[in-house]
Design brief:
4 helices; globular; alpha/beta; 16% helix; 10 strands; binds zinc ion; disordered N terminus; disordered C terminus
């Protein structure tokens, strides 16, 4: 059935338009998005590893994103033995998984990786998985104001902060390398919590994607987006890495792709 034909690091170009946000585009240049419903399934064992409050943190991330997405319903479920899909075909169930990995196969500096697949005919997102790097980072649920002064939670990366960013990728957003305040800025620091909250620019991007009815093609004027090619010809797989900044210095960007992330 449909085979993946393209794998790439998705945030290697800087935006040149007035707004800072970037939408994810497929190989035909069309933005990609979900239709109607997006169910996120989080791995039960991962939740246990992330610590008390992790389920609420995920729900809060989804609720925050839901406020900016009017035409798609976001839901959360739990599951077991979930995996990251690098192939999307009839033999692989399309579970949109959130999974923590102890044996991290990607760039070790990446706090998390999101892999998305879209149908090139409909430009619909059809599968997305979020991997959390449990091998090289420690996650936890921090107070809304960040790590407490008693240092009891030092060294933790906040679950909600991380998942709000990754789920932004799941919904079709690219990195926004021009605005460090935005949720979609491609860098983070240990203990950061400000990415729990969408900025106006993040909201603008999601509004652009999801305010437009799916059955009317893409954007004002349609932009030819609804033109089909006579059946599935392949799925676009994109991998987005979130490089952690540690200590708090700007990481070089764009980052060179690593061989371990391009397969
Ligand atoms: Zn990212």
């Amino acid at each position: 059935m449909a085979r993946l034909h393209s794998l790439f690091l998705a945030a290697l170009t800087l935006g040149t338009s007035a707004q800072a946000y970037e939408l994810k585009h497929d190989s035909g240049g069309h933005p990609v998005r979900w239709r109607e419903t997006l169910v996120i399934t989080v791995d039960e064992a991962t939740l246990a590893r992330l610590g008390p409050g992790a389920t609420s943190a995920l729900d809060a991330a989804l609720a925050q994103l839901q406020t900016a997405c009017t035409t798609v319903t976001l839901r959360r479920e739990t599951g077991r033995h979930l995996r990251i899909s690098h192939e999307v075909d009839d033999e692989h169930p399309r579970v949109n998984a959130v999974v923590g990995l102890d044996d991290w196969p990607y760039d070790p500096k990446a706090l998390a990786v999101t892999v998305v697949a879209s149908d090139p005919t409909t430009h619909e997102l059809v599968d997305a998985d979020v991997a959390l790097n449990l091998q090289h980072f420690r996650f936890g649920v921090l107070p809304p104001s960040g790590p407490p002064a008693d240092h009891s939670l030092d060294g933790l990366d906040d679950v909600q902060n991380t998942l709000t960013h990754e789920l932004g990728h799941v919904l079709g957003l690219e990195h926004n390398p021009l605005d460090q305040a935005s949720v979609m800025f491609p860098g983070t620091s240990t203990g950061e919590v400000h990415k729990r909250t969408l900025t106006a620019d993040d909201r603008k991007a999601l509004g652009l994607l999801y305010d437009w009815p799916f059955d009317q093609g893409w954007g004002p004027g349609g932009a030819g987006c609804s033109a089909g090619t006579g059946g599935p010809v392949g799925l676009l797989l994109a991998m987005l890495l979130w490089l952690a900044r540690r200590p708090r210095v700007l990481a070089p960007w764009p980052s060179p792709p690593r061989s371990t992330t391009s397969r």
